Amino acid sequence: MTHRIAAFLASLLLVATLQLPAFAQEAVPATQDEIKLTFAPLVKAAAPAVVNIYTKTKVKERRVSPFFDDPFFQQFFGDQFKSQQPKERVQSSLGSGVVVRADGLIVTNNHVIEGADQIRVVLSDKREFEATILAAEERLDLALLKIDTGGEKLPILPLRDSDDLEVGDLVLAIGNPFGVGQTVTSGIVSGVARTNTGIGDFGYFIQTDAAINPGNSGGALIGTDGRLIGIPTAIFSKNGGSVGIGFAIPSNMVAAVIKAEGTGGRLVRPWVGAAGEAVTADIAKSLGLPRPGGVVVQQLFPDGPAERAGVQPGDIILGVNNRVVEDPEGLRFRLATLPVGEKATLNVLHKGEKRDLVVDLIAAPDQPPPNETVLDGRQPLSGSLVIDLSPASAEELNIGAWSGVAIAKIRRNSIADRVGFEPGDVIVKLNDQPVKSADDLVALLGRAAGPWAITIDRGGIVRTFNLD
Questions:
Q1: What's the CATH number for 373-467?
Q2: Cα 395 to chain centroid, rounded
Q3: CB 465 within 8 Å of CB 452
């Protein structure tokens, strides 16, 4: 028994000795081994560059029944009705942001500031500034804000190459969850290059188990070197709280936006004129490939960059500049981080042989013009805005077709909305007649009175609406 007590006391002394530096140290750790004992020096260096963002948005609030809009009811209520018109209410929300340039350039999520009438930035030292929107990328869910510091230089977070990340790397998330104040959580990288998450239409994310909650959006995800590796943007949750599955926009995408729009410019994503589908396990087996992954080319734009570089239908794009590509979303991300006007190397598998093909990075052609046409009247497409497709408009709508007619917008509660049409639908046929332009569609609608057979292509799936 005496030996057991002695051993127990010795183990306690050993634990206390090992833990003492983590609680008692006063100096900044000088070696990598020492910094592992605490994240405090890392947080002290990074936290001043993470800001809180408060927005105010004026929304109209209807306080009476919509039946009062009916002239019959107005006969009875008169001036009382006028006094009950929708009133404005100020809606507040919060998020986080990161100072990426010492003159007051801040990156955050687009959804943090979208529609805001007033944006205030609060620094870590409690100073407040009015912010203006310098750029907003809805599809990327990124926005750049600018505050006037009167010439004072602010602390910044330098960006790290997010392609250097590996699953298992330690990370910290810094933000303002639920408005409780600046908060730091730790975790690891749970996954890289996450696509098909259902978050937006341009998804390519770092996954982490560091706790991310409402208010963390737009904040910082940093590595143990203190550099920015991502902007937390979304969580997977059934109750609104963190369950250990959070997603961040990689810093390489952030860097591309800053470079293009940090001085008031505009991000133009490169286009190579190649489209295809992910190489699944079944496709890999049919092609005799050892594993799934990559994009099998199904469509090439005539005389486009990819075709000129030597890409052929059936080729498999495995990477861009030796960075692995697993699916079409990954290919789009790799291209989006590169500047228009330069060249890139497509790592391609052609009939079992690996090739490196140099491709020009250009802006998507915007011809033909969109010819925006609003459809009305008593027909199934009433309430929709249709356009003639070009590669540029197809990129904006995130659809694979480079020609034809597509629905760009649909008015809420319109006939087209109630029928079930959606923005991005490509109208292929009307009553078995091919539709090649918006003018064709208008002419065909004018000649028909029903029943209707409207064939569309929605994300590669063709279906026909048969309506009386």
A1: 2.30.42.10
A2: 14
A3: yes
CB atoms within 10 A of CB 400: 16
Distance separating the N- and C-terminal Cα atoms of the chain: 91
Q: How confident is the model at residue 22 (pLDDT cuts 50, 70, 90)?
A: very low
Q: What is the mean pLDDT of residues 98-121?
A: 95
Plot region of 309 (φ>0 → left; ψ -120 to 50 → alpha; else → beta): alpha
Residue 2 has pLDDT above 50, yes or no: no
Mode of pairing for the β-strands spanning 343-350 and 316-320: antiparallel
Q: What is the pLDDT of residues 23-37, one digit of tens each?
A: 334 556 667 766 567
Place of tokens 């994503």: 269
**pLDDT for residue 239:** 65
Topology given in CATH for the domain delimited by 270-363: Pdz3 Domain (2.30.42)
Every domain of the chain and the residues it spans: 47-147, 162-261, 270-363, 373-467
Structure-block tokens of residue 401: 């077709």
* Catalytic annotation, residues: 111, 141, 217
Which of the four CATH numbers 3.40.640.10, 2.40.10.10, 3.90.226.10, 3.40.190.10 does domain 47-147 have?
A: 2.40.10.10
Closest CA to 227 of 143, 176, 295, 161: 161
Residue 118 structure tokens: 């007033």
144 strand-pairing partners: 107, 135
Q: Tell me: pLDDT of 358 over 90.
A: yes
Pairing of strands 343-350, 270-271: unpaired
CB 292 within 8 A of CB 284: yes
Q: Are 175 and 220 in contact (CB under 8 A)?
A: yes
Q: With contact defined as beta carbons under 8 Å apart, do 160 and 82 qualify? A: no
Average pLDDT over residues 236-256: 83
Alpha helices, H only, 84-126? 110-113
Q: Do domains 47-147 and 162-261 have the same CATH topology?
A: yes
C-alpha count within 13 angstroms, C-beta hemisphere, residue 432: 1
Strand locations in 62-153 (E): 87-101, 105-108, 118-122, 128-137, 142-147
- How would CATH label the architecture of 162-261? Beta Barrel (2.40)
